[in-house]
Amino acid sequence: MASNKEVMTVTQRIIGLDTQYNPLRPLPSNQYKMLYLRRRNQLLQEKARNRDDPSIRRSYLVMRSQILGSRYGPIEKKSSSHNNKKNHKQNADSSLPKAPGETSFLTPSPMRYHSAGLVPTRAAQASRAMAGDNTLQEHYAFCGMQHIFDQHKGGVTVIKFANDDRTLLACGSRDATLSVFTLVSEPPSLHCTLRGHEKEINDFDWSIGNDFIVSASSDGTYRLWKSNSGKCLRIIFDTSGCHSNCCCFHSQNGNFLITGNSKGQLKVYNVSTGKGVKGGNSKTAGSVLSLALESSGGVVWASDSKGSMFSFLMDSVSGRLQRLKRLMIEGGVPITSVSCRTWASREARDPTLLLSCADNSLRLYRILSNGEVYLKRKMAVPHSNEAIRSAFCPLMSFLQGACVVSGGEDGHVYMYDIETGSQVNRLQGHSCPVLDVSWTYDESLLASCDNQGTVIIWKRCGNDS
Hints:
By secondary structure, the chain is of the alpha+beta class. The chain folds into two domains: 69 residues, no CATH class; 336 residues, Methylamine Dehydrogenase, Chain H. 17% of the residues lie in helices and 38% in strands. The strands form seven sheets. Strands 1-28-27-26 form a four-stranded antiparallel β-sheet, with no helix packed on it. Strands 2-3-4-5 form a four-stranded antiparallel β-sheet, with no helix packed on it. Strand 3 and strand 4 form a beta hairpin. Helix 1 runs parallel beside helix 3. The longest helix is centred in the N-terminal third of the chain and has 19 residues. The radius of gyration is 23 Å and the shape is globular. The two termini are 45 Å apart. About 10% of the residues have low confidence.
């Protein structure tokens, strides 16, 4: 039997290896950290037949070293890189003119910032290798349609893949139903239909573990569903007697549901009780059209029908909301979609907002460490009447550029390089306005939906999965 000293030596080497890679890791998320630790502990209990055998730990150390090296690349000293980026700060910031009506967004949650811009440097060999080391045009090349769903009788307004799962896809329609599809079968098939709403579906969200779906409808209710059966577990009525426009689970506390309605009210509900949270109320200038959360759950962004973008501080324990700042878009056009990204690569760490504005524009805003919001890029997308949505491409931080994707009222799906503003791709296949788009977490599949109820799963070139 090996000595405890030998076992502890290998254990310390494992801890030391993790410590070396800590600076390269994304921002810590308590939610995923707890899931990871629980799963890791479960595997250790199942697999560790002899906990005092150092050979098991040595094998684990070798395997973990290979995985971390593949994910983040070899450990290098980059002291000179930090100084170069610091010297470049003024030039990078000066290239971002402040848009009319902009103000500061105070983001008190811990975020990391990077002043050298949003595009990864050529030194990120490991990251580029993960994305295939291709150009953006090559990486986002498509070879047609993999599958088409058309069972809905009304336009499909919102579509989302499940969290970290490329086998489940859901969408909500103007025919008052939601559909959950399974993509593991050949061909992909409808898993279940969620029935119960009386009017169109405006928004929905997956729970953290994908066990539940919450939906918002123009019938003035929010419904909690069991995703694997389609059973309605709870109905939450909006007491204001208006349309329920948007909803999302809190990213750190899955018991909190954040909602927005047509009277400009933000409300936080306790999903378990169906009741509102004390202090979890606030207002926007117009009808709330879209919600987004910063990854730690500390800041909520809400866009409205009068061209305003609001930030709110949210307490993940009590659910209280505190309004922070307001950003106004010139012309007062509706902002139909908002997405936020806390950058998690070594090269581009600025918190970023993506807005779909009904003045035929897709706008990218950069939030600096002093709280100032700058218009980084404005891209053209046909959008003036419909509630068009957009999204960040998940693997953008691994490429030699960063991309976003959006639907368009001309029936096309648009992809843009946000650093240059150039169009990377335009997918044609819909015959009416494309209302929403969604990627799988690994970009293996892209889904889009339109105003006539058609859902298209797009086939990536060179992707056999």
